[in-house]
Every structure is written in structure tokens, then in C-alpha cells.
Amino acid sequence: MNKKQKKMLKQIIAAVILVAILKLLPSFPTPVELVLYYIPYLVVGWDVLRKAIKGIKNRQPFDECFLMAVATVGAFALGDYVEGCAVIIFYQIGELFQSVAVGKSRQSISSLMDIRPDYANIEGEDGKLEQVDPDEVEIGTTIVVQPGERIPIDGVILEGASALNTAALTGESLPRDVKAGDEVISGCVNVTGLLKIQTTKEFGESTVSKILDLVENSSMKKARAENFITRFARVYTPAVCYGALALAFLPPIVLLLMGQPARFGDWIYRALTFLVISCPCALVISIPLSFFGGIGGASACGILVKGSTYLEELARTGVVVFDKTGTLTQGTFKVTGIYPTEGTSQDALVEAAALTESWSKHPISLSVKAAYGKEIDQSRVTDVEELGGYGVTAKVDGKAVACGNARLMAKLRLTVPAVTEAGTIVHVAIDGKYAGYLLIADVVKPHSAQAIKGLKQAGVRKTVMLTGDAEPVAKAVSAELGLDEYHAGLLPGDKVDQIEKLLASKQPKENLAFVGDGVNDAPVLSRADIGIAMGALGSDAAIEAADVVLMDDDPAKIALAMRIARRTNGIVYQNIVFALGVKGICLILGALGIASMWTAIFADVGVMIIAVLNATRALYIKDLAKKNEA
Q: Which UniProt keywords are listed (predicted)?
């Protein structure tokens, strides 16, 4: 509890003790009893009276404070001092309960706020580190991050190796190893070694700033359920106030005209009970709290939802469309197969290819060198020649080696085997003889198959992949992952056209989500009902255009996000039906004189506490996370 909550708790306890003492003491004359009971009432309820008076002054009287003030002051006027004190005490208990619940919901989002760095270390001419404001650091500046410090700005490691704690960004507890040449993002904690990093972005454009901006602005985009309750309360509260006024005076006047006793006191009591019952706290508090809890729970798992409206829409997703490269696949090439001819070993084939490709910076060449896994002695390589559209030729240890595609082998008048596997083929010839080939492919992410399976289990009707890759590659990835549909050889404009067709064919009240990471995905992310971006390695344009950001680039988190969204929406509608149902029944009973002020207290505070307790369930998503991992 914070100081304000502890203060309110003390006031509630003091008021309860004073009311209990007064109840046990013998009766006092009415004026004295009124004054004595006003003491505990003002101890706990002065803040409510002050807000009610302020609302009247601002010509916006119709809120829960006004309803409580009128009901409790009216109860005192009728001589029901204990009931008047009880109403205000239980109301403040409900408010305290709600405040604590909101505080707990904020904790996971507040932990994100802790990723904001206070300073950046810049090495001075004398070698000493100087702490400066991250906003003052320009692109290309070398900063020093010591063990235990948070990386303040995105950049590339120039010197050092370390393990980074990314839990605040991704929700993952395992540290990530980094070394010189690796890109790092702001917000991660440097765990072990000293790092020198060259900044690639200004602080305002770095990952940490974008995340904080997303979180801080998430409450601006309200769900339809929240907007409905806001509009409902604007009409509902004045209506029940005028209804209570009519209940207090119209029946007595009718009774008087009929020659019967008016019983103004009874009808005023009924009207006050009616006011307490009608207080819309349960709805006004629990529904935003439910969405806030859902967003907070998602953020703890590294899923940033830009607003409750997107959480609500995510729950109705029936079609999920994926980009391939960088989304379902790693986006980096890797040697996935080594096929030497008879008389040539796998090691010899890879060594010859790696040495021949040693001078090239092409992604295919880099993957071959990575497969070799040893330090390359370039003095062994001479007469290197790159042949555009064919490959590379060189002399390795005096032997002529050629690495390239089938056209290069045909140029050398060598016959190559028919290859049916999907991927890029690098054929190798040594001393004029065909030596074998390497299969290079963009590797599927470890959790991609689990992601598709999880989406099916979560109720997604159709999964689709859009890619600019060739048909064989797309077909192989689609079959491996179990996708329902795929479209290959697409340009960015073609992707938008495919999304339009899918939007036109989706079922009523069903949303289409697109998952992507690249700059060319931004138009599609904007066009889809829900745009989901890969945030850790994704482009800035994709993150800006998306409605949901996955901070660890794990596509399996999409199903988890949908489960969180559906549970949150379920909780919201449970609270709406429960609160309106109980209040509707109690309002009828109150108007008929069957419900007492104690019934009214349950209909207001009791319903609010139950609704808030139910709303806090949205924050706890451990069971959903375990189900998603299963």
C-alpha cells in the first residue's frame, strides 16, 4: 500500500471503531447523537463530500460521490445514523479495494517504466567516464556500459562480450550472449562484461523510448466496452437521480390526493436506498481495470498492446496472416545440408567452399563461412574472381575451386545432380571435377510450428503466409508448419492486394491479423484489422504501424496474446452482466420497499468488490502462459 491507501485504511478502521463504540453506549438525545455520529462519518467521508461539492460547483454533479453524499446525508436527516455511516464506510472500503487492485495491475507496467535509463557513459580524453543525459548523445557516439548498467541507446558493440538480461523487454529470464559486431537494443541490462557500443540511433528513436511511448499512450485508445460504459454512466446517473427524486415525492403526493397518509419518510428512505443501489461504481471501475490488467499481464510476457481497443479486437481474430522472412523464419541464411560426391568428405567440401567465399560479404558466403566454423587463413586463397550471376572462382592451396549455381557448373561443362530440396544450392567443383553441393536455407524459427498449432487451439480458423520468396521455398515452409494457405513471389503491393481479398472473404464479426517485421510490411500492418509486429529485430516502421508488438520476436506469443485478450473480454462481459443484473433486481426491490439500506450497501459496494476481484484475474496469466507452452 502507498501512503494514501494506508491513510484511508486508518480512517476506515477509526470510523468503524467509533461507530461500534457509539452503538454500544446508551442512547443520547437526538441532537447529541447526530453530532456524535457525524464524527466517524466525517472521518471517513469528508473526501466524498468535498468531491460532491466540487462537482456541483463545476456543474458536473452526477457522479458516484454525489449519489453517496445525497444518500448518506439523507439517511442522517431521517435519523438512520448507523446506516448513513455504514454506507460511507463500505463505499470507502470498496474504493480502497479498487485502489489496491489498480496498484497491483500497474506493477507489471511500472516495471517497464524502470527501463528508462538515467544516463549514458562517455569516455573522456583522460580515460575517465562521464555521465551525460541520453538525450544529448548523438548518433555514432561511443558509449560505455559497465556490468549491472542498463544499455541506454540502441547500437553496435565495438569491444567486449557479455550476457544481456532482456527480461524487462521480452519477459524471457534466460540472458542473451552478445559479442563485438552484434546489435544491441536499449533497455537490456549488461550482466557480465564491459561493453563499448557505437550508437546507431538517437535516444528519442531508440527501442526503450518507443516502448515507453507505447505504454504511456495505451490508455488513450479505449475499447468499445469502455466507451459504452462512459456513455452509459452519463445517461444512467442523472436518470437514477431524477428517478429517486420522483420516487421520494410522487407516490406521497398521489397518496395525499387519494386521501391516504403520505408517509414521506418511508418514500424518502426508499429513494435514498434507490440512490445507493444505483451507484455505477462496479461498472465504471471494474471494466477499465479489467483491460488495464490484461494489458499489464501481456506486457509482463513481452507483449505490448497499444490500447484496450486492440485487446478487445484481438479476441475476435479468426484469420492470421504471416510474413515469412524474419517472422516465421530466422531471416538469416544457414547451411542446412552438405552433400559431397564419392571420394570427397563433408569437411573437405565445406573447407573448399568457405575458403573460396572468404573474400565475399554476400549473405550466402557468410553462411558458408559460418558452417566452416574455423578461422580462415586467406593466405591460402589466390586468384579470387567473382562472376556476377554465377558465383566465385579461386585457387585454394594451388587447386582451382569454383563455387556457385548450376549455370556456373554448366559453364565449366560439369553435370550436376537434380536437387528437389527447397533452398539455395551452392555447387562446388575442385580441380575441374564436380565435388558436391551445399544446401542453404532461411531456417524456420524454433517456435513457429508451435505458434501455428497454438493459434489453431486458440480458435483461429485460417492461417496464411505471404512471401516474396520462390514457390518451392514457400511450399516447403508452409508444409513444415502446417499452414492452411500460402502465396509466394509477392511484391509489397501484392501483399496488400492479398490482404484485401482475405478481408473480403472473412466471416462477419471476425478480425484479420497480420504479423510482420519489415519496412515493406508497414502498409499491410496498417490495412489489417490487427497489426502485430516483431519488436526486437523488427523495423521502426513496422512497430509504428502495428497495434501489438512482440518484444522477443516469438510468433508463439500470438496465441498467448489472443488467450489473454479473450479472457479479458470474458471478464469484462461477466462484470457487465453481473453488475447490471444485481442492480436491476435490487432497484426493483428498493422501489417496492423490500430492500433495506443494507441491501443497498451490498448492491453497491458488494457488487463493486466482487467485480474488482474478478477484474484482477485479467492480470494473472501464468496458467495461460503454461497452456501456451504446452
A: ATP-binding, Cadmium, Cell membrane, Membrane, Metal-binding, Nucleotide-binding, Translocase, Transmembrane, Transmembrane helix
- What confidence score (pLDDT) does residue 225 get? 62
Instruction: Name the pTM for this structure.
Output: 0.67
The DSSP line for 486-505 is EE-S--HHHHHHHHHHHHHH
Spacing of C-alpha 628 from chain mean position: 16
The closest of 112, 94, 106 to 286, measured between CA atoms, is 94
Provide mean pLDDT across the span 302-317: 85
C-alpha cell at 471: 514457390
d(CA 54, CA 588): 31
User: Residue 170's closest CA among 195, 143, 198, 189?
Assistant: 189
Q: Are 216 and 159 in contact (CB under 8 A)?
A: no
Domains and CATH numbers, the chain: 3-109+220-292+566-629 (no CATH), 120-149+153-205 (2.70.150.10), 308-328+445-546 (3.40.50.1000), 330-443 (3.40.1110.10)
Catalytically active residues, by annotation: 323
Interior/surface letters 112-142, b for 16+ CB within 10 angstroms, e for the rest: beebbbebbbbeeeeeeeeeeebeebeeebe
Give the angle subtended at the CA of 58 by the CAs of 52 and 64, to the nearest 5°.
30
Quick one: pLDDT at residue 547?
Answer: 84
Phi-psi region of 479 (alpha: psi -120 to 50; beta: other; left: phi over 0): alpha
Residue 167 scores a pLDDT above 70: no
Q: At what angle do helices 557-591 and 607-616 cross, to 10 degrees?
A: 180
3-state class (DSSP) for residue 403: strand
* Other CB atoms within 10 A of residue 210 CB: 22
DSSP codes, 510-562: -EEEEEE-SGGGHHHHHHSSEEEEE-SSS-HHHHHH-SEEETT--TTHHHHHH
Confidence (pLDDT) at 351 = 92
CB neighbours of 76 closer than 8 A, spacing ≥ 6? 34, 37, 38, 41, 84
The sheet that has 462-466: what strands, in order across it?
Answer: 303-305, 548-550, 530-534, 511-516, 317-323, 462-466, 485-487
Taking each helix axis from N to C terminus, what angle separates 557-591 and 448-457, rounded to the nearest 10 degrees? 30
| 508 vs 111, higher pLDDT | 508
Chain segment 402-453, per-residue pLDDT in tens: 998 888 899 888 988 888 777 778 899 998 899 999 988 878 888 889 899 9
Coil/strand/helix, residue 164: strand
Q: Closest Cα to residue 433, out of 479, 388, 402? A: 402
Place of cell 387519494: 258
With CA atoms as reference, report the closest residue to 414 among 358, 336, 341: 341
Give pLDDT tens digits for 476-485: 889 989 999 9
* Confidence category of residue 375, pLDDT binned at 50, 70, 90: confident
Expressed in angstroms, the distance from the first to the final Cα of the chain is 36
- The larger pLDDT score, comparing residue 437 to residue 243, is at 437
Cα separation, 145 vs 197, whole angstroms: 8
DSSP element (H, E) containing 442: strand 433-444
* Nearby residues of 531 by Cβ (< 8 Å), 6 or more positions away: 513, 514, 516, 524, 525, 545, 546, 547, 548
What are the backbone dihedrals phi and psi of residue 444, each rounded to the nearest 5 degrees, phi first?
Answer: -70, 140
Mind listing the pLDDT tens digit for each residue in 528-552? 889 888 865 445 655 666 788 887 7
